[in-house]
Specification:
The chain is mostly beta strands. It has 1 helix and 12 strands; from the N terminus they run αββββββββββββ. The chain is 7% helix and 41% strand. The two termini are 43 Å apart.
């Protein structure tokens, strides 16, 4: 009789074993051809010199067969664009951002500013010294809160000089 409680405990423990966690999956968070300029009243990245902003619509476009969103700062020296997220995100999910730039030039030394905001919250910012060699700016943002599908996503580029910034497809690693 003493073995019955032990046997019941073992059966209960076996029945309550955790299901294996699903493998993380990578999902497209935004489409290169969905970015549109933000109204200045909703811009989470106000420019350092609002009077000096020049942004011709020909200064930003979808490039590389529709894969990247590129800003050419000789025609558009500061812009924030936005679009709704394509997927819902949970705490612990990771957003990956990659921005490629060619050689960075400016009449005098300066810094470029890049940023990403999700659902009204700035989640990533980077500054890049100018002049500079060609390179890539990367970030991985682990979310601490849930984000619904369709939440506002903002991407910002601000730069003095004739430079090119190409945003690779934004992806999210869904961990659950």
């Amino acid at each position: 009789m003493k073995r019955l409680p032990l046997l019941l405990f073992a059966l209960f423990a076996f029945a309550c074993e955790d299901e294996p966690s699903p493998e993380p999956s990578t999902q497209l968070l935004a489409r290169a051809d969905n970015w549109i300029p933000v109204d200045t009243s909703a811009d989470l990245f106000p420019p350092a010199d609002p009077e000096g902003v020049v942004c011709d619509p020909s200064g930003y476009a979808v490039e590389d067969l529709g894969v990247t969103f590129e800003v050419n700062t000789d025609l558009c020296n500061a812009i924030t664009v936005h679009q709704p997220t394509l997927v819902a995100l949970a705490p612990g999910d990771v957003i990956d951002i990659q921005v490629v730039h060619e050689e960075l030039e400016a009449p005098e030394p300066a810094e470029a500013r890049l940023g990403l905001a999700v659902d009204g919250m700035i989640v990533w910012e980077a500054t890049v010294p100018i002049p500079g060699e060609p390179g890539m700016v990367e970030g991985s943002i682990t979310l601490d809160r849930a984000i619904s599908s369709g939440a506002d996503l903002q991407y910002h580029v601000e730069n003095h000089g004739a430079n090119s910034w190409a945003l690779s497809p934004l992806t999210a690693t869904i961990v659950q």
